[in-house]
Design goal:
nucleotide-binding, single chain, alpha+beta, BMS1_TSR1_C, 1106 residues, seven-stranded antiparallel beta sheet, extended, Bms1-type G domain-containing protein
């Protein structure tokens, strides 16, 4: 090791700083050429196109994928604070809808919710809120929620696969605008075999794709743990919902609507008491969605009807986004979850009331009830008025004394007047006892267990508690008080002195007690209006806190509900009156505060004004002096300003030129120049959206509402009068309340197609329930089809094809989809959607005609002219139809010519051939049919609870006959009868002799004469054999039979031999062909070898080329 020499360091590579290679590197570094481009230049063949076909296919595929992602860009009209996304959970019964909603709420808010009643709004992220609504199996609910849903979670029971409700809801969504749909597979834990589970998943996924679109998202909920779905699966589903993008639907973006999450009855209780069936005034609350909503408009509540809105106002957002909360005032539960119908909402401030939702209906009922909750519950449960409680209450005026009732106090005052003592009120002293807190302190010091009624009760519950304490005391305590009252005169002198001690400093005690009460009572003005420009958090009754943001118009001023006296003053004294005399106009003012002096100062300061009508400017004295001084100084300053203006202009132009050059350099460096029409369109829409947002960005909400209406995303309150009383008395929060804005209603015409899955054809004039726009109503349609001449011909029944339907109903925009069902009552196993369609035209004067056949009979015939009767009744009717075309049953065409005087309604007509008296003549005419004017809204929300899905309207004729047990009377003309054929005797054909001569011999009539019977002389006589001849004939028959049997047997043997011979011959042929084939192969092989050998020998002798 020591003998080895140390390893020499290798010489480092020295980069060249001069020469052609270094120069090329410098140039490349200056130009900034990427490394990839250099490689392409050095070896261009390596980067050349290897296959033009493959490159073309790749390019076309890339362009197809790019074009598939393109949608027609729409202007983004979503506000900065969009309304919560409506997530509708749909599925058959007992499939796990409520369980998943609870799990998602727990995932987002860490809270548990018991019963899912009405919309449940939660905050799912920094900029997104979700409103979960559970959709029942009622088709009315399915139709209403399909119109407002942004996202549909469609539940599918994997153990039962697709059910009819799933297909019905998908068809409803296709008609009313297709929202985003995500499938959720449940009950996967019922599969024990993994192979069957995989097959079921695959089959259901492809069936779901067929109904929705290829690649639609389908979630799998594998099983449940302790009654809830697995946390990771729920978290994944919630993450997908939180980041999902939505494309605006046409109907939702063009119509404002509100999904109500709270309802309050504002009707006067006295009116309800007098008439329980009177119409109610109701306020509905919810987030405004769609587009802008104007005040004093018309709204439609599906399931109730059309109503006029009395007033709309926007409220503070009850479920604000985390970004919008500058100060955290509400607790975590109230901040993230808002479901008033489910009992979660906290304290809500209305314009005319404050609503407090107690956690009585919440799941967490095991928590201890705090005293503040008891206070509110006692306030709610109060049944007696304050006067009654004060009359029943007893007051102890001093410690250790007996409690007195109001009646006993009056008796004592009468006794004092009789004894010559003035009442305390006349002496100028207010008889106000001390406060409860003072009494409690005295009680602690003296340690005397005396039960007292507070003199100044802070609330009604204190009085109630005092009454309860009295009740617990029993009769013994009352007897003791009576004994004390009767023996008042026999008390000791020390007790009298102690009893009279309460009169000392009574005025000071009363004022202090009043001030304490004022400080303890909440200031209503501060709570409602706020106290300043800063957002404040006020603590009310120590059990909830509310945020108040600063107001544009502050309500300054003294709270009129309070009076804070420093000390009691006697205003009868002259000195007290002189102290405030100068506060009024008639008093003596100082020189600088006199009205005349102030008016002069105002004229000097603000004397200038402009007459807005004439435009003349009037100046005060100070203004005129100021103008003269300004004119003198302006002449000197003009020259300096002109020089400065020129310098500023040049500097400004230089800066603009520099910015323009920098912008051009930036554009050339970064713009790729591949902008398409689609990109330009998107950029234009983006600019329009920014312009829309910037228009009213700096304006406060009150002013914006006056200009543009209530914008989407606001939490609004709609006051609606004249609602039916059943809406309030039979209210069920499980059914959604939707308020959709609309216009006036007249009539409309629709285009209808019978649904291919409905198992029955539809009959004209049978009532049908339509879902059109926001409305669900029953009407009577007339089905018709358009002929080639433009005539609308009435159809008695729909066929399995497109046909038109004319209905009477409210006006709806053209292109609006609608669907029809025959009944919304109950659940049926069959497919309930009878037809789907789209509104084509709005026209009240549409003419539908039905075919009418008028029948007549000829009574006189003159060659081609006939007289017809029985078709018309009067001459006037015939005149109207002169020139009309008629025809007979046999197909002879004719025309009406002129009316006849007798008989009435007869006319003369000409035909293209002579008629017979047995012919029937008919006239085909068209009779106009009027559309039945029936509009019967579906009032399912007015039904009693539990029966809202049993609404039934007008019944069809078939249903009426079935319910009443009426059988159709058969038409006698339609019944089958025994056919009696009358035998017709035709005359003998007579051919003239001249014609017979011309006929050929073969066709002459004499050949057609029937042959008669063979005469007896020509008939062959029968032969009768002798006995000997019969024996000979029998022997011959036996011999013939034996011969036939032998010949048949010989033929069978010969046939078998021949068959065997044919088989042997075919086998020999096959062997022969095989031998020939082998010989040919051998021959060809030898010939090939010989040919190769000859080629090889020829190549050896041939000269070799370079």
């Amino acid at each position: 090791m020591e003998g080895k020499e140390p390893k020499k360091e290798q010489k480092r590579h020295q980069q060249k700083h001069s020469g052609p290679k270094a120069e090329r590197k410098k140039i490349r570094k200056q130009l900034g050429t990427p490394a990839g481009d250099d490689e392409r230049k050095r070896n261009p063949k390596a980067f050349a196109v290897q296959s033009a076909v493959r490159m073309a296919k790749t390019f076309h595929r890339a362009q197809d994928l790019k074009a598939k992602k393109h949608h027609i860009p729409l202007v983004d009209r979503t506000p900065l604070e969009p309304p919560p996304i409506v997530v509708v959970v749909v599925g058959p019964p007992k499939v796990g809808k409520s369980t998943l909603i609870r799990c998602l709420i727990k995932n987002f808010t860490r809270q548990k919710l018991g019963d899912i009643c009405g919309p449940v709004t939660i905050v799912s992220g920094k900029k997104r809120r979700l409103t979960f609504i559970e959709c029942s199996n009622d088709i009315n609910t399915m139709i209403d929620l399909a119109k407002v849903a942004d996202l549909v979670l469609m539940f599918i029971d994997a153990s039962f696969v697709f059910e009819m409700e799933t297909f019905e809801f998908l068809n409803i969504c296709q008609v009313h605008g297709f929202p985003r749909i995500m499938g959720v597979l449940t009950h996967l834990d019922s599969f024990r075999n993994n192979k069957a589970l995989r097959k079921t998943k695959k089959r259901l996924k492809h069936r779901f794709w067929t109904e929705v679109y290829q690649g639609a998202k389908l979630f799998y909920l594998s099983g449940m743990v302790y009654g809830e779905y697995q946390t990771q699966e729920v978290k994944n589903l919630g993450r997908f919902i939180s980041v999902m993008k939505f494309r605006p639907l046409v109907w939702q973006q063009s119509h404002p609507y509100v999904v109500a999450d709270r309802m309050e009855d504002l009707t006067d209780p006295e009116m309800v008491r007098v008439d329980p069936k009177c119409d109610r005034t109701v306020s509905l609350y919810g987030y405004l969605r769609g587009t802008y909503l104007k005040n004093k408009g018309q709204v439609h509540i599906p399931g109730v009807g059309d109503f006029a809105v009395a007033d709309i106002s926007f409220m503070p957002d009850p479920c604000t986004l985390p970004e919008a909360q500058k100060k955290r005032a509400l607790n975590e539960k109230e901040r993230l979850l808002y479901a008033p119908m489910a009992g979660v909402g906290g304290v809500v401030y209305d314009k005319d009331a404050v609503y407090i939702d107690l956690p009585g209906g919440h799941v967490n009922q095991e928590q201890e009830v705090c005293p503040t909750t008891e206070l509110v519950q006692s306030l709610i449960g109060t049944h007696t008025t304050l006067d009654a409680k004060m009359a029943a209450g007893k007051v102890s005026l001093f410690t250790g004394a007996a409690a007195l009732t109001p009646g006993e106090v009056e008796e004592e005052e009468e006794e004092e007047e009789e004894n010559g003592i003035e009442p305390k009120e006349k002496q100028g002293i207010k008889t106000i006892p001390p406060v409860k807190r003072q009494k409690m302190e005295e009680r602690k010091v003296e340690k005397e267990p005396v039960v007292e009624v507070p003199a100044f009760a802070d609330s009604d519950d204190e009085l109630e508690m005092s009454e309860e304490e009295e009740g617990e005391g029993g009769e013994g305590r009352v007897m003791e008080r009576k004994v004390i009252r009767r023996g008042k005169k026999m008390k000791k002198t020390v007790q009298w002195k102690r009893a009279l001690r309460w009169k000392e400093g009574l005025q000071q005690k009363a004022s202090e007690a009043f001030l304490r009460q004022q400080r303890a009572a909440p200031n209503l003005r501060k709570l409602v209006y706020g106290t300043g420009n800063v957002s404040v958090s006020v603590r009310i009754l120590y059990f909830f806190a509310v945020n108040f943001t600063d107001k544009k118009h502050r309500a300054d001023g003294v709270d009129c509900s309070r009076f804070d006296p420093d000390a009691a003053r006697n205003w009868d004294l002259e000195e007290m009156l002189d102290s405030i005399r100068d506060c009024f106009v008639t008093g003596k003012w100082e020189d600088d505060q006199d009205a005349a002096t102030l008016q002069k100062e105002d004229e000097e300061l603000y004397g200038d004004f402009e007459d807005l009508e004439t435009g003349a400017v009037h100046k005060g004295k100070a203004g005129k002096q100021k103008d003269q001084a300004e004119e003198e100084s302006d002449d000197d300053d003009d020259e300096e300003e002109e020089k400065l203006m020129v310098d500023d202009e040049t500097q400004k132009n230089k800066r603009l030129e520099k910015k323009r050059r920098l912008k051009e350099c930036f554009d050339t460096e970064y713009d790729d120049g591949d902008a398409t029409y689609f990109d330009d369109l998107k950029e234009e829409m983006q600019k329009q959206a920014e312009l829309n947002r910037a228009e009213f960005e700096e304006v406060d909400d009150e002013t914006r509402v006056q200009y543009e209406g209530f914008r989407p995303g606001m939490y609004v309150r709609l006051e609606i009068p004249s609602l039916p009383c059943e809406f309030v008395t039979k209210f069920d929060p499980h059914y959604p309340i939707i308020l959709g804005a609309l216009g006036a209603s007249e009539g409309n015409v629709g285009y209808l197609q019978k649904h291919r899955w409905h198992n029955r054809i539809l009959k004209t004039r049978d009532p049908l329930i339509l879902s059109l726009g926001w409305r669900r109503f029953q009407t009577i349609p007339l089905y018709h089809i358009e002929d080639h001449c433009g005539r609308h011909r009435l159809l008695k029944y729909t066929q399995h094809m497109h046909c038109g339907a004319t209905i009477w109903g409210p006006i709806t925009p053209q292109g609006t989809g609608f669907l029809a069902v025959q009944s919304v009552a109950g659940t049926k196993t069959s497919f309930r959607i009878a037809a789907t369609g789209v509104v084509l035209d709005l026209d009240k004067s549409v003419t539908i005609v039905k075919k009418l056949k008028l029948i007549g009979y000829p009574y006189k015939i003159y060659k081609n002219t006939s007289f017809i009767k029985g078709m018309f009744n009067t001459v006037l009717e015939v005149v109207k139809f002169e020139g009309a075309s008629i025809r007979t049953v046999s197909g002879v065409r004719g025309q009406i010519k002129k009316a006849l005087s007798t008989p009435a309604g007869a006319y003369r007509a000409t035909f293209e051939d002579r008629l017979l008296m047995s012919d029937i003549v008919f006239l085909r005419s068209w009779y106009p049919v009027s559309v039945p004017q029936l509009y019967n809204p579906v009032t399912s929300l007015l039904m009693p609870a539990g029966q809202k899905d049993n609404w039934s309207g007008m019944r069809t004729v078939g249903q009426l006959k079935h319910d009443l047990g009426v059988r159709n009377k058969p038409n006698t003309d339609s019944l089958y009868k025994p056919v009696v054929r009358v035998q017709h005797h035709f005359n003998k054909l007579h051919i003239p002799r001249e014609l017979q001569k011309a006929l050929p011999f073969k066709s002459k009539p004499k050949q057609d004469q029937p042959k008669g019977k063979t005469p007896k002389d020509l008939q062959r006589p029968a032969v009768i054999r002798e006995p000997h001849e019969r024996k000979v004939a029998a022997l011959l028959n036996a011999l013939i039979l034996v011969h036939n049997y032998k010949s048949k047997k010989a033929h069978t043997v010969q046939h078998a031999k021949h068959k065997d011979f044919l088989r042997q011959r075919s086998k020999a042929e096959e062997d022969k062909l095989k031998r020939q084939k082998e010989a040919k192969k051998k021959l060809y092989r030898m010939m090939g070898q010989k040919e190769k050998k000859s080629q090889r020998s020829s190549l050896k002798g041939a000269p070799q080329d370079d």
